[in-house]
What does this fold into?
Amino acid sequence: MAVYKRNYKPYEGVLTADWRRFLVPARYALETLFQSRLLVGFMVAAWIVPIFGVTVIYLHYNLSAITLLRLNPDQLLPIDGDFFGAFLSFQGALAFILTAYAGPGLISPDLSNNALPLYLCRPINRTEYILGKMAVLFIPLSFITWIPGLLLFAIQAGLQGQGWGWDHIRYAWAIFAGSWVWITLLALLAVALSAWVRWKLAASALLFGVFFISSALGAMVNEVLVTRAGNVLSLGYVIGIIWANMLQLPTNKTLFGEMFDIRRGDEIPQYMAWMVLGLVCAACIGLLNRRLRAKEVVS
Amino acid sequence: MGNRTILKRLNGSLSGRAIGLLGPNGAGKSTLINTLLGFYTPAAGTARIFGKDIRHEARTLRRLIGYMPENDAFIADMTGVRFVRMMAELSGLPPSEALERTHEAFYYVGLGEARYRNLGTYSLGMKQMAKLAQAIAHGPKLIFLDEPTNGLDPAARVRMIKLIREIRETRDIHLIISSHLLRDVEECCQEVLILKNGQVAAYCDLEKERRSNLNFIELETYGHEGEFAMAIEGLGCDFADMGQGRFKMVLTDDVSVSDLYRLAAERNVQIRRMNHRHDSLEDIFLKAMEVPAADGRL
It folds into this structure.
């Protein structure tokens, strides 16, 4: 119907599938997000390390290039679990920065403008709404973590040949699953903080606080009580333990272990790391459940 | 809601095209709408809209519903067209259809020229219209309007009422309008549900009420009252002789006021005063507020 026909008309056409509905707020939020030049610049810069990684892998298989650059092949980083672990750690840190920039503005505008009833009076429930908001982070975070990681793995497997890819498939799994564990944790923390802290800058600061203050607290507990149990308070350490296990890395003598300060060999047990992660996620879900209601319930 | 029970013993069914929800502040009007929308879970009992249970078929129902909340509800840094389009897509419209209908909705509510402006820059009246646009863009079968004329100046209020009446006249659409402004409800609605302390205080069909008001007549006559009374009785109308030439009667469908004049002229009776009963919505509302709520049935 043309716009000049100004009368009300019910809609009789086709409807989109229910399962796709949560992608609507995600698509609109992504459009807004990518209007920021800073973010686009950051996303491009986040590919510097993957490009460096590709170069290192390429040099391993190109003697003439090594000779041309006058490099000693023994000086090149070996392409092993430690290499992929270090890659994951660096890209993970970038993912954290990106989350701190983009995450806090996901839910707070809806809450401060009282828009939740308008979302939830439509065929979308709270879980889908939260999933939609998290999906806003899933896409850019995937773009800088597991996508370049798997690309590196594929290039290495392709150049090495002789079944290297199949023999080291655990690296690919660790890159993919480890990235998703990290992305999910970051996205959950970001939406939970966004739901409770309306001021964007404060929410970003709080996200940094969750990681850095908890790490400092953990270190303090370790020093005072002469233990390593304080590490359970450090989310960075916990995720490092999980990644190390996925990559099957001997953490006490690796670059990766050094990055996460888990080189001493007295790390917390795996189950405890997963438990801490589970508790943090449950706390985020609890916070979201309490906060995200179409209408305030007065007791 | 929390530990408090707001709505109690509500039983019945509503089938009108435009139903007004009336009641003093705190009567439970908004709570009823929010419960029907699924925002609050009823502690006991349930409700059905178009035969669908609000607890178990909420998703299906929400495809058919439009909602205009009482308070400001929008995203300030979005343009009007982008916001309403997103809402229409959330209701299930494909992106291109949603965009087309969003433009239509904006023109329909009179915001065509302002649709590319950020919602945060809209005046109060414009925000109300934008809220109406998002409620109708996806073409719902039932629209909940919570205080639609809140904060509007007289001209904007007239525009809003006109729009609501136009929407009401569209086939296959139902409106539930919550308001504490009797005039708004009287102008827009055909039926009225009056709530008091979370219970039904009164339910009335305004159309029927208006018709019966027209048929109910009070007469004051002079001369030959006895003959005139017998003549009225002959017409088959219910009537009561109040003495001193005063009568109350309910006209049947085949009897009109001119018949009364004719009878009076034939018997040389003067009709000195003739009143139609004029029970306004205000009278009905005040009456409902005076009496304690009954058993909650409509």
In short: The two ends of chain B are 23 Å apart (CA to CA).
